[in-house]
């Protein structure tokens, strides 16, 4: 079996890995990099592929898949609601990226026609290769993919979280013997604070601001994080109004159709019923004058409906802006956090509102990753991807030094035989 890395090599973004087994060539993810400009993985022609396995909907894993449907009709496997989320995100991506993208809406539709939904732990045969999707605990529908061919077993973790959240159970870590593992390394160098402590602090600081007649804006990624925040508030019986806006609403609607993808669908439904949906500019103007919580994309304040709320919320020291997502350096969210400044209509404004960051991560931390890798035997090869260069390299050298396993932080285009 051969494994070739086309993206997410010593960086976070544009995940793409090829596995060649027997006569087949399969692709795990084909995402985009969205830091400052949009960048793509190493090219592969659709005629060289037999099938695509999608780990989850985030654009850094899914964003370039429609490209293959310009000329070929490949089967695309994933666990719902991955496909519906992917469609929602790519539709928005097409809208904001316009002619920079090498495909159009019609290609996204062709992709959607070739989706094959599978269930977790339901091994199936793909042209002589055994494929098994395991829960990744990262966002609803997210998967780790286990593949068996040529007498070898290889795991691709995708993005995974070994800790429970309010919406999802922890990743399924029962892999059995592996010949190779391709692991994400996003937080290979740091541990996260205890989730229950983060929740408590978030709810108590939110309550304090709302009780002082302030508004708390929570800029959050529309798919996954927005629903998690609403569910956290519901779990703590937060008694003040919670509004939701933008893409978070469409994602919530999709998720309601897939209660089985949630850890506690009753709690989620309670959160949805409690949440007030913003449907118009009038609603928006009213909400921002109400002592309440407003959950609105985008998580790093690069766009979305949060921008409108920011214009109002920043002015008053009674208000709060609570960031709940990772902030890529250089994004408006990271500048806000460091300098308490935000660009409004082309001018940099001082932010009077209370700015705080809460670590509601959906990735495992250093101890999680190290503990999982420690369980493999000496024949397992480890490949570290989907992390900053220093994290991928450090994790690979920790694995070879501490565990004595063969480990690599691959570079784009590198190929290995398992
Ligand atoms: Zn992800
Ligand atoms: Zn990712």
Total number of distinct structural domains: 2
Percent range of helical residues: 25-40%
Kindly provide the name of the CATH class of the largest domain. Answer: Alpha Beta
For CATH, the homologous superfamily of the largest domain is named as: Ribonuclease Z/Hydroxyacylglutathione hydrolase-like
The number of helices is: 12
The first-to-last residue Cα distance is 5 Å
CATH-derived architecture of the largest domain: 4-Layer Sandwich
The description of the largest β-sheet is: 7 strands, mixed
> How much β-strand is present in the residues?
15-25%
Mean pLDDT over the full residue set: 96
Oligomer: single chain
Ligand list: zinc ion
Radius of gyration based on Cα positions: 21 Å
Spatial ordering of strands, largest sheet: 6-5-4-3-2-1-22
How many distinct beta strands? 22
User: What name does CATH use for the topology of the largest domain?
Assistant: Metallo-beta-lactamase, Chain A
Give the overall shape.
globular
**Which spans of ≥5 residues are poorly predicted at pLDDT below 50?**
none
Topology (SSEs and partners):
Elements: E1 2-7, E2 16-21, E3 24-28, E4 51-53, H1 59-62, E5 76-78, H2 82-97, H3 105-112, E6 115-117, E7 124-126, E8 129-135, E9 143-149, E10 152-156, E11 180-184, H4 195-211, E12 216-219, H5 225-235, E13 242-244, H6 247-256, H7 265-274, E14 275-277, H8 281-287, E15 293-296, H9 306-313, E16 320-323, H10 332-339, E17 341-344, E18 347-350, E19 354-357, H11 366-374, E20 381-385, H12 389-403, E21 407-408, E22 415-417
Parallel strand pairs: 3-4, 4-5, 5-6, 10-11, 11-20, 12-15, 12-16, 13-14, 13-15, 16-19, 20-21
Antiparallel strand pairs: 1-2, 1-22, 2-3, 7-8, 8-9, 9-10, 17-18
Bound molecules: zinc ion (2 copies).
One zinc ion is lined by residues 56, 58, 138, 159.
